[in-house]
Amino acid sequence: MHSTHAVVRVGDTVRRPLTESSGAVRALLLHLEKVGFEGAPRYLGRDGEGRDVLSYIDGQVPLPPYRAWSMTDHALVDLAHLLRRFHEATASFDCTGISGWASDWADPLAGRVICHNDLFPENVVFRDGRVIALIDFDMAAPGRPLWDVAIAAQEWAPLSAPDARRDHPRHLDRIARLRRFARAYGVEPDRASELVELIFAERQQALAHIRSEIAAGNQTWVDHWHETGGEERAETDDAWLEQHRDAIVDAIGSQCLNRP
Ligand SMILES: Nc1ncnc2c1ncn2[C@@H]1O[C@H](COP(=O)(O)OP(=O)(O)O)[C@@H](O)[C@H]1O
Ligand SMILES: [Mg+2]
Questions:
Q1: What are the tens digits of pLDDT across the range 182-210?
Q2: Phi and psi at residue 60, to the nearest 5°
Q3: In a mutational test of the pocket of ligand 1, which residue from 10, 135, 137, 138 has the highest number of ligand atoms less than 8 Å from its CB?
Q4: Domains by residue range for the chain, with CATH
Q5: Which is the closest atom of ligand 1 to the Cα of 122?
Q6: CA dist., res. 78 & res. 251, Å (int)
Q7: Which of 8, 14, 33 for a ligand 1 pocket mutation test, highest count of atoms within 8 Å of Cβ?
Q8: Any residues with CB less than 8 A from the CB of 165 and at least 6 apart, and which?
Q9: Pairing of the two strands 52-55 and 130-134
Q10: Ligand 1 atom 18: the closest Cα is on which residue?
């Protein structure tokens, strides 16, 4: 839901119209290829229409409402491992002189890795129920690793009120999934408070961005926010998060899977 341009498949490639971040993303994808990171499309060049050509990754991409196969604990752990490997692969990426990164959802303090910043299920490729790749790097930008962990945790635990967000199966144990995700990523338990601060900060920044887009008349956001009851959802989710804040800190801090 973060962009309106049309990405199309052509054979075993996808074609992406250029955006302001295309140059930076191209450099990132070439770096990922160089260091042998398999969980991202390959950059293959430009086509005759001036679009970027990327490899098509064969598999299934979850769309809302997210089916049970995309929300298993296995998939959650896979995603955490893949995200960790992605961050590690980008740590050696020298982005001096590279500009044009999207700022919309980016870590305001930047950081030592590249964050994906758009870790919705729609941007994750599955095969046979396992997570195999991240796609859609248009929103990527330098950031702290925990910034992406904060985004992924919100979308995949998910950290939202069960009644307000109907995209996910209702039965998911959000706090247990957060604990599992943090543990699989390798979040040090003593960084629990820091991660929770980032979860709240990222959420506030994202909401502020959406509200400013709406105030500026961005029709895509106006329609989406209206159709999905965005403001009411935001309020309900805020209340849920506040109510569960201590449990969330404890979950990340303990990360013991046997605890209730
Ligand atoms: N490299 C790829 N391999 C497989 N599927 C892709 C790839 N790129 C895009 N897709 C599919 O196209 C959809 C839209 O592409 P995406 O890159 O997420 O663009 P956006 O969200 O900006 O429209 C994805 O959700 C996915 O289903
Ligand atoms: Mg996408």
A1: 999 999 999 999 999 999 999 999 999 99
A2: -115, 140
A3: 135
A4: 8-55 (no CATH), 68-257 (3.90.1200)
A5: 25
A6: 19
A7: 14
A8: 158, 233, 237
A9: unpaired
A10: 136
